[in-house]
Design brief:
Length: 311
């Protein structure tokens, strides 16, 4: 009898430790407990020394875009969250880039330069705060699993709001790129004419395992706890859907862009996405560009490639 109680106590302790570790992993990887919204006189950079040389340009773009005429929208996600976006109109008949930012970013931080690029190309831009970011609701990031459904809701809204003739290009950077590529594998209205994916990852599993490896932790064991934490505390399956599966079913043209010096999301991931993509496609890599910096480092080259890509 005593042995049985000891066994039960050990089993309970093991279960408790598994839950505790999974919860810690969930909090680190997926949970957002506070949203940061820039004050009117503030703009901020992504974390990392690679962004410091570009601080002046990033801040300038953010402040310029903030002061441009725009219209604000709020829609509901499929699961009831408020989703916020800003629309910058170049002209009423211009195609619109629907733009998604990266992991723990905001529309203003990651996409202000994209708005400037859109206007040079004669396009309008709708930049959105992904769930958990900026002025959008929620507190769980899902690496594109739920975010791609938000993308589909934005497309639905745009067709209703701007009219049945609106032309939409799905654009994303980092996690935003994976979000739009995942959405690209779904049935899209004819209004969606193409996708621009900048430094996206192949799947949540791939990028999380890559980061775990960089942290010098046991990859498979650690990933088990991360995935379990997502399931138990975030109520989603990390492996339910992915960008690599999305591009296999994608029917619209896709331009993949990636910095060759990206040490966060390896350039190889865009190469794999490009190879798996079954629609018309182009791969553009920028030498010397770190994560999310292809447009800043290879500005003229980037602009030329995006300009010449035909949707």
């Amino acid at each position: 009898m005593e042995i049985a109680w000891i066994v039960l106590a050990i089993a309970a302790f093991v279960c408790l430790m598994i839950l505790l570790i999974s919860y810690i992993c969930f909090k680190i990887a997926f949970f957002v407990d506070r949203k940061k919204v820039c004050a009117s006189d503030e703009a901020y950079l992504p974390e990392g020394e690679i962004y410091l040389p570009h601080r002046e340009q990033i801040v300038s773009w953010a402040k310029e875009t903030r002061n441009m005429p725009h219209e604000e929208f709020m829609i509901k996600s499929f699961d009831g969250l408020d989703l916020f976006g800003k629309y910058y109109e170049f002209s009423k008949d211009a195609p619109i880039e629907l733009m998604f930012h990266g992991y723990r970013g905001t529309a203003e931080r990651d996409l202000s330069g994209g708005v400037q690029r859109c206007f040079k190309l004669g396009r309008s831009a709708l930049i959105v705060d992904q769930r958990c970011s900026g002025k959008s609701g929620g507190n769980v990031i899902t690496f594109g699993v739920k975010e791609h459904k938000d993308c589909l809701k934005w497309v639905e809204f745009m067709v209703e709001h701007f009219g049945s003739d609106v032309k939409i290009i799905l654009t994303g950077i980092s996690m935003g790129a994976s979000t739009v590529l995942t959405a690209g594998g779904k049935e899209l209205p004819e209004n969606v004419i193409g996708i621009l994916a900048d430094c996206g990852f192949t799947s949540a599993k791939d990028i999380i395992k890559k980061v775990i490896g960089q942290m010098k932790l046991p990859v498979n064991i650690s990933y088990f706890f991360v995935k379990l934490g997502a399931r138990i505390f975030g109520h989603f399956d990390l492996e339910e859907i992915s960008a690599i599966e999305g591009v296999k079913k994608c029917k619209v043209p896709v331009i993949f862009i990636h910095g060759e010096a990206d040490d966060y999301v390896p350039c190889e991931m865009s190469r794999r996405l490009f190879e798996a993509c079954n629609s018309r496609k182009e791969l553009v890599t920028v030498p010397g560009a770190g994560h999310g910096l292809a447009f800043l480092v290879g500005n003229e080259f980037y602009f030329e490639k995006v300009t010449n890509f035909k949707y």
